């Protein structure tokens, strides 16, 4: 497959452009792989109506010499029995490594790579996360659950957690036992 060269003109007024879009326009997804996972359930997890929360965060590493952008997308799932919402009855964690190639770094900033990871990294890994949760839930002997599709909405104020990490919470959902 022939490589496509893309020229992106960087405006002097960079604030008008989302820095993540500039990165998105230049990368090619090379690989996605699961690099870490964990699941737990407590007794009684099969009974009652449940609600769940999903949190995710990203880390980005840029290697300008080799032309790679690496995003680690970390996901955390918690399910609660509706009448006893203080302790989660199901926990599922997974981290995916996404490798992107990039030929031209001109005009790109660290903030742009972070914005790219927070949107594109999550968007690209979300189907793998959905499949992982659905299979894990079934393997835990619980009724099947489908995680909703990833919705791109205008970002709210994002909090930076640690080094090169942003965190977002997905709206709680209610699941009833089949």
Structure description:
With 178 residues, the protein is of the alpha+beta class. The chain has a single domain (17-150), classed as SecB-like (Bacterial Protein-export protein SecB, Roll), CATH 3.10.420.10. It has two helices and six strands; from the N terminus they run αββββαββ. The protein has helices at 19-24, 110-139, and strands at residues 27-41, 50-63, 68-81, 90-102, 159-160, 166-175. Strands 1-4-3-2-6-5 form a six-stranded antiparallel sheet. A hairpin with a 5-residue loop joins strand 5 and strand 6. The chain is elongated and about 55 Å long. The relative contact order is 0.24. Residues 1-16 and 157-178 have low confidence and may be disordered.
Which short descriptors sum up this protein?
178 residues; alpha+beta; Bacterial Protein-export protein SecB; six-stranded antiparallel beta sheet; 2 helices; 6 strands; elongated; disordered N terminus; disordered C terminus
Distance between the termini: 47 Å
Specify the structural class.
alpha+beta
Mean pLDDT: 79
CATH topology annotation: Bacterial Protein-export protein SecB
Kindly provide the name of the CATH class: Alpha Beta
- Residues in helix, %: 10-25%
Brief sketch in words of this structure:
This protein has 178 residues and is an alpha+beta fold. The chain has two helices and six strands.
């Amino acid at each position: 497959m022939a490589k496509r060269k893309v020229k992106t003109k960087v405006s002097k007024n960079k604030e008008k452009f989302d820095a993540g879009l500039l990165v998105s326009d230049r990368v090619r997804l090379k690989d996605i792989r699961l690099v870490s996972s964990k699941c737990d359930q407590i007794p009684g997890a099969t009974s009652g109506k449940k609600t769940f929360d999903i949190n995710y965060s990203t880390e980005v590493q840029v290697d300008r010499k080799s032309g790679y952008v690496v995003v680690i997308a970390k996901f955390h799932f918690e399910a609660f029995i509706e009448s006893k919402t203080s302790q989660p009855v199901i926990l599922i964690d997974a981290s995916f490594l996404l490798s992107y190639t990039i030929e031209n770094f001109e005009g790109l900033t660290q903030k742009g790579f972070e914005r790219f990871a927070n949107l594109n990294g999550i968007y690209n890994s979300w189907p793998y996360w959905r499949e992982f949760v659905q299979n894990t839930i079934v393997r835990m002997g619980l009724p099947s659950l489908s995680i909703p599709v990833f919705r791109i909405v205008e970002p709210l104020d994002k909090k930076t957690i640690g080094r090169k990490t942003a965190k977002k919470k997905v709206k709680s959902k209610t699941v009833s036992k089949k």
